[in-house]
Amino acid sequence: MKRILPIFGILIALISCKSTNIIQESELKMANESVNLYAFIGEKISVIEFDPNENNTRIEIDSITGDTIRKVSYSMDYGFKNKFKVIGNVFNELKTDTIEFIAYNHYGRPKFENYKNVLLYISLNKEKGHYYHQKYQSDQVQKDKNGIWKGMNGESIKELFMEKRNGVLKARGIFE
């Protein structure tokens, strides 16, 4: 009997910890498949700069004269290929454990590069089949002493997401 009581206590503790994690994760997940946005907590794997002006020339034929026209476009942004481990989905579900996406930044390297864990906002370009970062949108996050993800000023993940949703993402026309 003396051995059963401690084992029973440990079992109850493990079950209660697991149920806390399930509740926390279910509170985070929001979805609307008609909105082209994925918000997730990610852990940085790599951020690699690339030249966004490479292969920027198109050759077209003028429909009236038949002349060959060489069109060149230039990006004023820096380009980055990013790879992150998906720790948790916040809005819509990325059905993968790692995600690669492209980010453009006019001011240099992206701010999210400086953080181990970050709440990121990306969208899928269905024509190109690539995910793209919602320019300048990220929030540094960390786990608190109870293992709950929070912003650096103690905001909940939901508060961080709703601030972006009702602010810049609404202004960009992603949300009505």
TrEMBL record:
This is Lipoprotein. The lineage of its organism: Bacteria, Pseudomonadati, Bacteroidota, Flavobacteriia, Flavobacteriales.
